[in-house]
Design brief:
The longest helix has 10 residues, at about 30-40. The protein has one helix at about 30-40, and strands at about 25, 45, 50-55, 55-65, 70-80. Strand 4 (about 55-65) and strand 5 form a beta hairpin. Helices cover about 10% and strands about 35% of the residues. With about 80 residues, it is mostly beta strands.
Length: about 80
């Protein structure tokens, strides 16, 4: 996949159990990107939240629906909280 990270796994809940895949859009600063998209009317399922810690970094996601009701997500690595 080159520089594209492909994550595969089973649905984590009934709301995600459907025949399409989730596309994760990597952004530099998830909190700022979330605010911009909310301002543009994007319907988020979840606010930016921590999903994984790796040493001095944290991986954050924010799930949303596109215009066809597919689930998408913003994804971002952030420095770990002190």
């Amino acid at each position: 996949c080159g520089t594209v990270r492909l994550l595969l796994g089973p649905a984590e809940g009934a709301e995600f159990d459907h025949p399409s895949s989730i596309i994760y859009y990597r952004v530099e600063e998830i909190l700022a990107a979330h605010q911009v998209l909310v301002g543009r009317g994007v319907r988020f399922i979840s606010a930016p939240h921590l999903v994984h810690r790796a040493g001095d970094r944290e991986f954050w996601l924010a799930d949303f629906r596109d215009s066809e009701e597919n689930v998408m997500a913003l994804a971002s690595w952030r420095p770990a909280a002190a």
